[in-house]
């Protein structure tokens, strides 16, 4: 019994593993992506329901927090693939629907936006 109690105490006192946040450059890219999604006027489909950009941003930030806590993401691409491309509950892909256009998978939409973010940053940086 004493061994069990000792093991339990050691388990409870053991430091909780916490992940690291995204590196600053990657976090800036993810923030830019989520800002673009929120301000795009597009809708975000998650498990069969459509949500406004602000709701999509809030949901994806929760997923980012989870992934960072598990130390599972270091780049914007990893965030897209592991958190922003589909439901971890149902396995269904997320979709983005913009006015007048057919819905596309969120991974495709976010990767295109990431390229636009990077192109804009490269064009504005001093040479």
Automatic annotation (TrEMBL):
Residues 1-19 form the signal peptide. Keywords: Signal. Pfam families: DUF5329. This is DUF5329 domain-containing protein. The lineage of its organism: Bacteria, Pseudomonadati, Pseudomonadota, Betaproteobacteria, Burkholderiales.
């Amino acid at each position: 019994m004493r061994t069990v109690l000792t093991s339990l105490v050691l388990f409870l006192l053991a430091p909780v593993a916490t992940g690291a946040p995204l590196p600053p450059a990657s976090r800036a890219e993810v923030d830019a992506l989520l800002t673009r999604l929120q301000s795009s006027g597009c809708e975000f489909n998650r498990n069969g329901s459509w949500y406004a950009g602000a709701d999509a941003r809030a949901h994806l930030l929760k997923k980012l927090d989870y992934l960072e806590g598990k130390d599972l993401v270091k780049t914007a691409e990893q965030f897209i693939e592991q958190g922003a491309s589909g439901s971890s509950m149902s396995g269904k892909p997320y979709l983005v629907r913009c006015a007048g256009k057919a819905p596309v998978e969120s991974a495709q939409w976010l990767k295109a936006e990431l390229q636009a973010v990077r192109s804009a940053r490269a064009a504005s940086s001093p040479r």
